[in-house]
Amino acid sequence: MTKMDDIISLSKRKGFVFQSSEIYTGLNGCWDYGPLGVELLKNVKDSWWRSMTYRENVVGLDASILMHPKVWEASGHTAQFSDPMIDNKFSKKRFRADVLLEEHAHKLRKKGKGQKANELEEKLASIKENSDYYDLIMEYGIKDEGSDDWTDVKNFNLMFKTFVGSVEEASNTVYLRPETAQGIFVNFKNVMESARQKIPFGIAQIGKAFRNEINTRNFLFRTREFEQMEMQYFVKPGTEMEAFDYWLEQRLDWYKSLGMKESKLRIKTHDKLAHYANRAVDIEYEFPFGWGEIEGIHSRTDFDLSRHQEFSGKKLEYVDTVNKERYVPFVIETSAGASRGFMAFLVDAYDEETITNEKGKSDLRKVLRFSPKLSPVKVAVFPLVNKDGMPRIAKEIYQDIQQHFACEYDHAGAIGRRYRRQDEIGTPFCITVDGESVENKTVTIRARDSMEQVRIPISEIKSYLIERL
Ligand code: ATP
After folding, report:
1. For a disulfide at 202, which of 56, 58, 137, 325, Cβ 3.0-4.6 Å?
2. Which of 228, 254, 267, 332 has most ligand 1 atoms within 8 Å of CB, for mutation?
3. Atom of ligand 1 nearest to the CA of 295
């Protein structure tokens, strides 16, 4: 089994992530977050929110998922938000043509044909039209189920369409937003004026986004419904590169501050820029299936605000009263996937080690080494045995600290097994009430990573935890 399979199976077993509508055989590309998953996801989002908006010049927003259809015309999504799709006539399977070629390059590299892989990637980067994908697929002899009977490459729009009101007709068409960013752009004026912000300032938003992805794959990496954490930072034209450097560093620091391994993070600079961008990088994480984007940082010039100005007929300028100038601000965007980030943190935390257990035998310990800030459960409380006054003291401690931290009480099974259960879900601290606790009001606290135990007075538990969490 690959590590990814272990993680997916642990996710289900422990209640992090379930397949959506599982009892009906599931709905492809959709996942449900269980009791521990919802805590972890919330911790990721809360940490992002604190780091992005608890500062002087970034404020929050929560825009609706359904927006006026003109928004997507202005943003270019109606015309251009599509993937090149190709069908294999024999296997009847549909693929993203670019992904098919990228994966082929990946396979070539794995087989030691690095130069051929580089060659293919270069050709991919200079593709101009859909027929170029087809030509490359044929040139490299790419097959599915042994067949190279491919259709032409067609564009497939990724936006989910639905209707407002009771009549299903074109004039009532609306879309589920494919990104949260446009909610920010169309509220630029509202937010700036109501929050009395001056350039440079940012607007941050966390919310669901929907894309009718052709190939959903790799667990939470590419799903049809997901959450984004985006911030648009509005600056004076000409100052955007400085802001870009600043936010790129801030965003990298955020992942590292939550314990993500530096060796698993890298920055990939876009050589091919979207027509409106003057700089773009991806922050990538090395998943068990290879490097994948977890966040994009884009310098989007004045494209978005200018387009909305044009399509809405409303001025979206900034008036600088001090320097007596007016301009449409430039934008630096930081666009992170909450669910992709969730998966990266989960993968990064997963560890297996062989230890000597309480009985002196060697044992496999599975442990999620989350930063305590992300751990879904911060503390577990155990009575060593279910008698001699221990449960009463343990319950009291549990009820007390539960008011401050996400906490679990467990009295079932051998103590070693209980520790192991908490290790598997990444709980940083376990408190055990034993015979000594009854005599002298002390407990042991065990740390997840070192497995070391210290004995402290019950009265000091709270300060001990506050310091470390
Ligand atoms: P990709 O090339 O992987 O499809 P993208 O370049 O289209 O991604 P953006 O539009 O820049 O991605 O979206 C910003 C972020 O939103 C991504 O870095 C990713 O974390 C997240 N994201 C995008 N699409 C999905 C998806 N289908 N499932 C989960 N997260 C996604």
Report:
1. 58
2. 228
3. 18
